[in-house]
Specification:
358 residues; alpha+beta; four-stranded antiparallel beta sheet; four-stranded mixed beta sheet; 11 helices; 22% helix
Length: 358
């Protein structure tokens, strides 16, 4: 049944009213057409066009969307504020958006490091790092990622540098490489710039020279590998990082304290651990002590190769760990070690030893 001219007019008026309501609710900008009719900006088949308000409803039925079109490039950019000013004289929220606009010759507006360590601030925006937030006048901010505040930079497949692996993962990046040729050993230092670095090598890589240890631990190399996948210089540093489920990667070395200092400048608990760390040019830190195995356990809970080395470490009141006579009748064993007598060699699990003095 055909509609009367009156019905068609009413229907057209209703669609115009609905379009006007839709424009108001969606907050889409309009422009006057000069004939009492509002013009509305919409995205039509990938192109931004302007149509009269009465036509909006029909366009929406065919899949058009309100407002200007957004290209795929812009949608793929992070919603991070890290402003750059480019050769076209415009300022873009970040370098990714600038590239989408075809701009490659750009400079940063803020003298901030190019490190991704995002913070969310009171204005509702997320900034690439705290420095950029301050540049934008924001002071009330919190970290957007639950990551340690450790500086151990990595460069990732997206071309960005992140403060550490955790921050890279927070940004969805997994293909990353360390920007500094430093060991992955946890021995944190806090430097004059206020940052904490994974170890002194990384601090030097960042140009920091005046640093102090973040943990009250001895500077002894006796590495442990822990459940978090990291290797720590010793058990004390692992505990400082909250790690308790750890094991020594140098399982064949004794837990005897007979310290040596090596060419790399580090002190190792004993010669075996130095070899485990790839060091061969080492000397004893207790030069006046004999290289005799006659172990003693001391009040600090450690076992020392002999009483002299215990005294060198400041320990007194120590007890022998082997019920052997205090006789000096040295034996040399296949591993090159010398023991005060055969009993002490057996106590250390050594066999096939011969008298050192024929």
């Amino acid at each position: 049944m055909s509609r009367s001219p009156m019905n068609r007019a009413c229907r057209a008026l209703g669609l115009a009213v609905m379009a006007s309501i839709a424009v108001t609710l969606l907050g889409v900008g309009t422009a006057s057409a000069g004939k009492g009719q509002d013009k509305v900006t919409i995205c039509h088949k990938g192109r931004t066009i302007t149509v009269g308000a009465p036509a909006v409803s029909a366009h929406r039925k065919h899949g058009d969307t309100m407002g200007p079109c957004q290209d795929g490039c812009s949608r793929a950019c992070p919603r991070i504020y890290d402003p750059v000013t480019c050769a076209d004289g415009k300022t873009y929220n970040n370098a990714c958006l600038a590239r989408c606009a075809g701009q490659t010759e750009c400079g940063c507006l803020c003298a901030c490091p190019g490190i991704y360590d995002p913070v969310s601030c009171a204005d509702g925006n997320t900034y690439g790092n705290a420095c950029l937030a301050e540049c934008a006048g924001q002071a009330e901010c919190v970290s957007s990622c639950a990551c340690p505040r450790i500086y151990d930079p990595v460069s990732c497949a997206d071309g960005n540098t992140y403060g550490n692996t955790c921050l890279a993962k927070c940004a969805g990046q997994s293909e990353c490489l360390s920007t500094c040729g430093c060991p992955r050993t946890y021995d944190p230092v806090t430097c004059e710039d206020g940052n904490t670095y994974l170890n002194s090598c990384l601090a030097e890589c960042a140009g920091q020279a005046e640093c102090g240890s973040s943990c009250a631990c001895p500077r002894i190399y006796d590495p442990v590998s822990c459940a978090d996948g990291n290797t720590y210089n010793n058990a004390c540093l692992a505990e400082c990082a909250g790690q308790t489920a750890c094991a020594s990667p140098c399982g064949g070395c004794s837990r005897i304290y007979d310290p040596v200092i090596c060419a790399d400048g580090n002190i190792y608990n004993n010669g075996c651990l130095a070899l485990c760390g790839g060091q061969t040019d080492c000397v004893s830190t207790c030069g006046g002590c004999p290289r005799i195995f006659d172990p003693v356990s001391c009040p600090d809970g450690n076992t020392y190769n002999n009483a002299c080395i215990a005294l060198c470490a400041g320990q007194a009141g120590c007890q022998s760990t082997c019920p052997c006579p205090r006789l000096f009748d040295p034996v040399t064993c296949p591993d090159g070690s010398v023991y005060n007598n055969a009993c002490l060699a057996e106590c250390a699990g050594r066999t096939g030893c011969t008298p050192a003095c024929q």
